[in-house]
Amino acid sequence: MTFLKANSQRTTLRGTLRGTLRSSSCLVLATLALIWAGVTEAQDLDELEMVTEDAYQEKEAAILEAKDIQARVRSRRGELERAKRNAKNAEIRTRSAENDAKNRIANANREMERIKKQIFQLQADQAKFEAQTIKYGEQIQAKKAELEAGQKILEETRQKTMAAQQESTQRLGQIREIEGQMDNLRGQKDKEQVLYDKAKRESKESEVRLKTVQKRAAEEERKTNAEMEKLRIKTQEAELATARRQAQALSVSESSQINRQASSSAGGGSAAGYKAKSGAGRRPSQNQLTKDCVLRASPSSKATILAKLKRGQDVAVLERDGGWGRVKGPNGRNGYVSRSCVP
After folding, report:
1. Residue 272 domain-assigned?
2. From CA 297, how far away is CA 294, in angstroms rounded?
3. What is the extent of the structural domain holding 299?
4. Is residue 316 part of a domain?
5. CATH number, residue 306
6. Quick one: DSSP state of residue 322?
7. What would the pLDDT profile of 148-194 be if each residue is shown by its tens digit?
8. Residue partners of 27: CB distance under 8 A and separation at least 6
């Protein structure tokens, strides 16, 4: 009984140990269970070691199996992810294909509409072509009638042409005679052309000589103008010198006349002497020219020009006689100006 009880306890312990090792894989609990069961025999320890070894092997096998299962699960998950991606790609391709199909159908519909319009246009063009064909047929008939009339005219023209050919044959003889005359005229023309070319060359040479003469004449004219300008300047200088001498002579004669008058009035009494003195001591009046004037050597519009005076210049008016006034210019020169310049 004791042995059976011990065996039953061992069996129960082994089952408990295996269950414990399989469920929790805890060797410490198994050892405590053996101690609690009171296993003290060496045989029980051997059996315990064997059971522990079996439990370890079963544990390793379970771990390997779990790893294998985990690997298969990962593989299945990867396959599932790939299947999902493939499904999504297939759905995208399906949608793209549907869109392409819709676009193609829409394009086909538009093309059908365009073809229908072209058919309608072709039918309209065909109707126009038929109408134009009828019109052209009528025109062809009219042209045929015109052609027949033209053939009649052509026949008449041929007859006229035959007569004209005969006449032209006669005129051809005349033309040949005229050509002979023309040849003679061409010979004369060639001779005249030679003479013309010679005359042309001589004309060109004459033009060259003429240009040379013109250049020389222009040079001579320039020199002559320069000399004339110098001569004009000298003439003006001479006229100015003459005018100065005339003015000086006039001034001297006036001074002499004044002296003679003074000497003649010296013995005529106190009143006459007083008048002579007052007349001799009269000072000339200062005036401004009212316009541009010309200072001349004598009271004449043809007299020599001494100077040109500007409006506003101050002059000393010595006397006024008729349409002229004798003045002393700004440069001290005496002469005559128009009375309108010194009113």
Report:
1. no
2. 10
3. 284-343
4. yes
5. 2.30.30.40
6. T
7. 888 889 888 888 888 888 887 888 888 888 888 888 888 887 888 88
8. 21, 52
